[in-house]
Structures are given as structure tokens and as C-alpha cells.
Amino acid sequence: MKRLIMTALACVAALTLSAQVDTDWNKRVRESQQNAREEYERFRQQAEQEYNDFRKRANEEYARFMADPWTTYETQPAEEIPKLPKPPTPVLVDPNSHPEVLPIPFEGKPLPPMPIDRPQPVEPLTPIVQPGEPETLVRFYGTEMVFHFSAMQPLHMKDASESSVSSLWKQLSKPDYDNLIAECLQNRSKLNLCDWGYVMMTEQVAEAFCGGHTNEAVVLHMYLLTQSGYQMRIGRAGDRLCVLVGSNAKIYRYRYFRINDVKYYCFDNSIDYKTLQIYHRAFPKEKLMSLDMTQPNLAVKATQPRTLSSKRFTLVKANVVLNQNLIDFYNSCPINSEWELYSKASLSDMAKDSLYPVLRKAISGLKQAQAANVLINFVQTGFEYATDQQQFGYERPLYPDESLYYPFCDCEDRSILFACLVRELMGLDVVLLDYPEHLSTAVCFTEEIEGDYLMLEGKKYIACDPTYIGADIGMSMPTMKKFNPVVIVF
């Protein structure tokens, strides 16, 4: 009995000692974690202070030079959209012809697609909202965005002079306006806006705060874009200010200024000018606006259903519903000459929901050649053909959703849409073939398929022409066989 009691006491002592050791260990762990948190907080505060100091110095210097006389630049005339002499009617395949299968020689070496390099502020900014702070709703293509303006003082300029702009820039550089920049960037992410969308969105925000078409709104717009990392300049014509957007893309129908081999576009057509006084100083880490398109997350305003069907494959018949807000947004985008930018845009989720189930069912279980013929006949025969001149009065490439929306489409629109369908429904690589006065496609199949082809980096691409009505894959338009197309990779 005595031995049992002694054993029990020993166990209790051991457990007590173990508990004490465990308590000491946990205490040391907690102290270590607390020290780590405090060290991180000191590091964060130091980094934030260094960023604030850098940004403060950058804006102070920017505002100081802004007060000096601005340089006069002559405008460059807007580049007109080239008029491509496309056939007024589509080319129909001759069912009795059996053309020889030919390799397609092409010009030059295709360049790989460039990654999107979205501008960013010199350091991240996080929105800080106080509980109960009043909200302001700003609408962007039917989509409500929440902003908090209450902490910001109203903006006022006595005139459009250099000194007035400089003074307003100094006011904007105060911490009171940092939250607005952070909320703009937050909404850019939430709405998945491309650069052009962000330029337009920040203009809406500036005008909501300052009033539309005011010089104060222009300076605030310029400030928001500059602080977000975009390469912008500000100009003056008489008593009117305007934002100049930096981009080296070839944008049609807008005048621009060339400063240090960079094009700066003025998208405000209400300003009449031949010259502008421009403040052309660069802001740290600025980047040019890209025209790459992302699919914006806009509020839904459904269009009327449109029935699209294939003449050869009766299973392909879909009632397509689109988002009118997205169509209106696309309608605002600058027209440019880069076909791959349109091809990379994809279809909206709303368009896919009404079209893709029908197409997937139609090609399910088919070999690649059969499936591709289903898709190409749908594009060839499901849409009425008309040139851009006939439909709009000027050349205008369409994003895939727009081809489903407008009553007519031409060769580049069909090629862009077909490339999208093959890439997303069949998972195959597609390139565009840019002929004189015509655009077509070629697909890299993983099954052996006969037809006109080109060899690109050791891979075989079969010609597929969505405007050669009734033609199967592998058949090039006869009038195009004498040309060497430029291959566009995207």
C-alpha cells in the first residue's frame, strides 16, 4: 500500500513538473509570437513611412515643376481607320471543286503575345473606412460603385493657370485623398477592369465629386491615374484643361501629341485646339495604358434573345442573351489595329451560358475535324454578312460578344469569333492569317487532318476560313492562295 501511495505521489509530481514546463514553453511561444508581431508592425510602419515619404516627395516635386510655364505642342491629326476594300458579299464554296492541298507560305516570323503589364501605384494603398461614414454611389455602365467622399475637402480653382493646377495638386497630395485612390483601385479589381475601363471609371469618379466637365474634375482625374501608376500628361487649351493618355498603340479617330516618342491621346472631343500647353514631366514608375481587354464584371441588363443557328447542322440552334451594359462598354473602347487584342477578349459568361451548352452538345463525341466543321459552319451560316462600311460607315473590328449582338459581321469578326470558339470549346491553338483585304484563321489540331496548312515552330496549322461559306476546314479561299499572309499569334 505504501509503495502504491509513493508511486502515485511520484506521478503527481511528474505531472505537476510537466505542466509547469508546458506552461513555461507556452509562455515563451506567446512571447515569441508577440515579439514577432511587434517586429512586423515596426517593419510595416517603417515601410509605410518610407513609402509615404517617397510619394510625398514625388508629389511635392511634381507640383513644384507644375507651376513653371508649360510647353506648347502641336497636335498630330487623328489617324483615320484604313478603308479595307472587302467583298460586298461573302465568297461561296463551289461544291464541285477539288482544290489541291497546298502549304501556306507566310511573311516574317510571328511574335509571341505580350503579357499584360497593368500599371500599379508605387506602393499598395488599402481603403480605410470609418464606421458609419456616408457612402456615395457612382454608376459605371449600370454598375454601382461605393465611394466615401466625406473626408475630402471640396476642390476649387480660380483659373486654369499653371499656379492654380500646382496648388490643387498640392491639396490632392494630402492624406485625406489617399482613400479615394485606394477605393478606385479596389473597384478596378472588383470589376476586373482593363486599363481603358479604369481610365473611364476614374473619370466618372472625378466628375461625381467635382461636377462634370470642370477643370477641377480634370485635375482630380489626372491625379487618380498618375497615383495609380498610369503614364498621363495634362494639357491646356485656353481656359480648358484635359487629360492626355499615354499609349503606343495605334488608336484611330483621336488626335494625339508625340512627346519623347510616346503618343498622348486626348479623348475629349469637346475641346477645340491646334496646339496645347502641356505639362510633360514624368511621375515615378509610370506605365503606358494597354489596350488589352479583360472581361468587366458589370451589372446585367439583358438584351432581347437572338436566335442563331447553323444551316448544315440542325442541332446547333441557340437563343443568345447578352449584357447590354457590356455592349455599351465595348462601344466606348478605342478602335485599334491590333487584331489579337480583339481575339483575346473571349465571350462574356452571359453569352457562354446561352450559347456554349448548345455547341458542346453538338460536338460531343466527335473527332476534331467533325467538331471543327460544326463550329465553322455555325460561324459561316449563322450570321448575316456585311462589311463594316455597310453596317457602321467605317471600319470597326468587333469583340466576340458584339458579333453575337449586331445584325451583321464581316471576315475579321467571324475569324475572331471562330478562334474564340475553337480555343475555348476544343482547347486547340489558333492563329489569325492576315491577308490583303481579308482575315482568316488556322488551327493546330492534335489529330491528323488533311487540308491547306502552314508550319509554325514545328507545328502544323490547318487553314479554316469562317467567311468561305460552306467550306470545310482545310479549304482556303481560292483568291487568297496567291498571297502570303501575316501570322498573328495571340
CATH architecture of the largest domain: Roll
Distance between the ends: 87 Å
- CATH topology annotation of the largest domain: C8orf32 fold
Which strand-content bin applies to the residues? 15-25%
Instruction: Tell me the name of the CATH class of the largest domain.
Output: Alpha Beta
Within the largest sheet, what's the order of strands?
1-9-5-6-8-7
Radius of gyration: 30 Å
General form: globular
The assigned structural class equals alpha+beta
Supply the number of helical segments: 12
Largest sheet: 6 strands, antiparallel
Enumerate the spans where pLDDT stays under 50 for 5 or more consecutive residues: none
Averaging pLDDT over every residue, what do you get? 88
Number of domains: 2
Overall helicity = 25-40%
Record field, number of beta strands: 19
Task: Give a verbal description of the structure.
The mean pLDDT is 88. This protein has 2 domains: 171 residues, no CATH class; 212 residues, C8orf32 fold (Roll). The protein starts with a helix and ends with a strand. A 6-stranded antiparallel sheet has the order 1-9-5-6-8-7. By secondary structure, it is an alpha+beta fold. Helix 4 packs across helix 5 and helix 9 runs antiparallel to helix 12. Helix content is 38%, strand content 17%. The chain has 12 helices and 19 strands.
